[in-house]
From TrEMBL:
Its biological purpose: Pyridoxal 5'-phosphate (PLP)-binding protein, which is involved in PLP homeostasis.
Residues modified as N6-(pyridoxal phosphate)lysine: K42
Protein name: Pyridoxal phosphate homeostasis protein
Pfam families: Ala_racemase_N
Top-level taxon of the source organism: Bacteria
Organism from which the protein derives: Zavarzinia aquatilis
Family of this protein: Belongs to the pyridoxal phosphate-binding protein YggS/PROSC family.
Amino acid sequence: MTLSDSPETVADRLARVEHRIAKAARGIGRDPAAVKLVAVSKTHDAEAVRAALAAGHRRFGENRVQEAEGKFPDLKAEYPDLELHLIGPLQTNKAKHAVALFDVIESVDREKVAAAIAEASEKLGRRPRCFIQVNTGEEPQKAGCLPAETDALVALCRDTHRLDVVGLMCIPPADDEPSLHFALLAKLAARNGLKELSMGMSGDYEVAVRLGATYVRVGTAIFGARDYTPA
Ligand SMILES: *Cc1c(COP(=O)(O)O)cnc(C)c1O
């Protein structure tokens, strides 16, 4: 399915997702403004991003540095308040490019990456906010540090590498009850004194909001199905 098959526009879908986030937040007595929507535009072109910008949205997520470099520099020049999140794995040799373009890096999951971000930050005089990605399902193929390694990695990133660590991020296993993972992430964040929780995608963002998400990352429900599934 492509967007043109659908009578709904990006603006309609954005409004619906925002409405559902607000409803889920109010339902448990949270301030809806405490939950921020990251519109995940990976695989979609700059025109799709423009439609969201025209509707007033300013926060986007991309999972590949190179793909983001193809769409966002011009858009960021045009919309200085655009906030761009890196949500996919970062290779150390791309750290400089990532620090130059992204405002938030959500996928810090090992010390080498933290060190590369720190070095690039120093060189470029830009200090992106960082999330530590936790592999809550302990899936061998998935990025993220193990839950048991989280406290140590947070300390290393904060104290040794002086990253601006603001929170934790997770992607639960596809076939598991997401609430267990969201609750675990919330617990790990609380015990490390971290305020931000990036959790919840198109299929489960309302559950995530009820369990304390401060950022939800939603792609398909806003931009439609992707033509291919990036690794
Ligand atoms: C693609 C992606 C999303 C968005 O997924 P949807 O199911 O399309 O909402 C969220 N987080 C990460 C890390 C992603 O790679």
